[in-house]
Amino acid sequence: MRSHKRKAVQKDALQENQHKKSPGKLKKAKLYPNAGINNRLERLNITPISNVVTMFDLLKRPGVNFNMLEKISKDGKIALSDREIQEVEIEIKYKGFIDRQLKEIENFRKIEHIKIPGGFEFKDAPGLSKEIVEKLSRIRPVNLGQASRISGVTPVAISILMVYLKKWKNLRDTKTN
Question: In whole angstroms, what separates CA 137 from the centre of its chain?
Answer without folding.
Answer: 34
